[in-house]
Task: structure prediction
Amino acid sequence: MRHSPGYRTSATLMGALLLAGCGSLLGGGKRDDLFRFGVIERTNDTAPQAAVARRPLSLLRLRFAPEIEGDRILTTRGAQALYIKDARWVASVPDLFTQALTRQFGARAPDLRLASPRSATGASQALQVTIDRFEARYTPEADGKTPPTVVIAGEVTLFGADDRQPVASRRFSVEEPALANSTSGIVPAFDRAVTRYAAQLVDWTAQTSRSASSNPPSGKGQKDE
Result:
């Protein structure tokens, strides 16, 4: 489903104002509140860890649907797309998502070094991440008090770096209910959803990458559901 990126609304979606054009600026001179997602909290575990040789994995530029590629916080209700008023991500969604993935790879797959194609020298594999849903979804019958559910969905494909032939691909989808119908309730739900999504993506990628590295290629990519 493609949403028209030309709308903004309050966190309660009440009294939404329809704005013309996707480049509409905020009025009144008020600064937006800025938020981030995907930050992993540090633990007090300071035990030394053995050094592990890190195999480079090339991360191709993340692909996002146009309506979620910027820094606005998207909500949906049926076929209607709206953005939360006076609130934005501190950076674009692809940038924050890339940072979240990098942190998760460091925490969950210490034998892999995620890097851009230019700095992934010696990488035998490349990872393509495509996200088509990154939104707080309201049910059509929801009233102004019902919290939305954050939905993140997309497809991940592991390629051979030399021939760009797909090794395997899988679609991931997570849903995380917001605890309140407000910005302070919705943003943490995005954070929890990104953490879960990234963890699943990293675990699958690490397992698939190791398996592909230890087995000769079959010539056909594996499609996981």
Observations:
- Residues 1-29 have pLDDT under 50 and may be disordered.
- The CA atoms of residues 58 and 116 lie 6 Å apart.
- The first helix runs from residue 93 to 108.
